[in-house]
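Before relying on records like the one below, remember that each one covers exactly one chain. Contacts with other chains, cofactors or solvent are not represented anywhere in the record.
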Amino acid sequence: MATVSPIRRRSARPTQAAERQADGVLHRSKYLDTLLDHVIGHDEFFLMTASEIGDWDRDEMTKL
């Protein structure tokens, strides 16, 4: 009698749900743009790259 492996192999083809997630939801991009414009418009907020965040964090940790 053959045994069945409990591990199922995944298909190389992504599912429809994964394809929809990868495509994004383009009709919401205008809301994201509006939100970012609003947030960035405040003096208390600014954008940083990942490298800038790392530099800032490193500097803050040396102050402790």
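The chain has a mean pLDDT of 74.
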